[in-house]
């Protein structure tokens, strides 16, 4: 059987790192991208290789659409050399960052930076790679529980995630004839360095999250990494255009 290949943007830390590790554990060859944390990205690669998996790290600025054509060529050359193939099976649009500010205090620069990474980047990267994704493959876009429920200070970020959820549905419609599934994974509050690591490091924030979550705790990166790997590698080809929240029942 031909080895499956996944491209994961923002794979050097947090959720992307966990997704890469879980997919590698399922025998998937992983290509992960990083913006500027080269050491962290290559640490993920080394960890995967140490357990018998295959992984490669490539630099990519998902806000810079002018670099996507060159990245595509680099990706194809890289997977041809490593896996003997010129297409990927899975694309996970995960790269991102957060801005915490009230609507009154959100700057135009903040809004545009969020748009560039969370909306423009995934849209045009996916567009660039459409003919590189195998028919019958799967695309996952990362959203957030904040697109369903509201917390003060996250309006601009949540707006972007609302946009990516709409994009998912339209993309699923257009790619349906190619048997490509497209879904959204929407994590709740997870213990990572996102937002300065508040959920992970601030006991009050962590306790608040636990108090509004049905399962009584904040999420862990492996909760999301395991969910993505299960969706991609399981017998889930009939699931498409869906928003799947991975939040332990936060604010239900």
Protein structure class: alpha/beta
CATH architecture: 3-Layer(aba) Sandwich
The CATH top-level class label: Alpha Beta
Specify the overall morphology: globular
> What's the β-strand tally?
7
Report, as a whole number of angstroms, the end-to-end distance: 42 Å
**How much is the radius of gyration in Å?**
17 Å
**What is the CATH homologous superfamily assignment?**
NAD(P)-binding Rossmann-like Domain
Percent range of helical residues: 40-55%
Instruction: Give the low-pLDDT segments.
Output: none
Q: How many domains would you count in the coordinates?
A: 1
The ordered string of helix (H) and strand (E) elements is: EHEHEHEHEHEHHHE
Order of strands across the widest beta sheet?
3-2-1-4-5-6-7
Biggest sheet character = 7 strands, parallel
Beta-strand portion reads 15-25%
What is the number of helices?
Answer: 8
- Quaternary status: single chain
CATH topology: Rossmann fold
Mean pLDDT: 97
Question: Could you give the topology of this structure?
Answer:
Elements: E1 5-8, H1 14-25, E2 29-34, H2 38-50, E3 55-59, H3 68-83, E4 88-93, H4 108-129, E5 133-142, H5 155-175, E6 181-187, H6 198-201, H7 203-211, H8 221-233, E7 243-246
Parallel strand pairs: 1-2, 1-4, 2-3, 4-5, 5-6, 6-7
Helix pairs in contact: 1-2, 1-8, 4-5
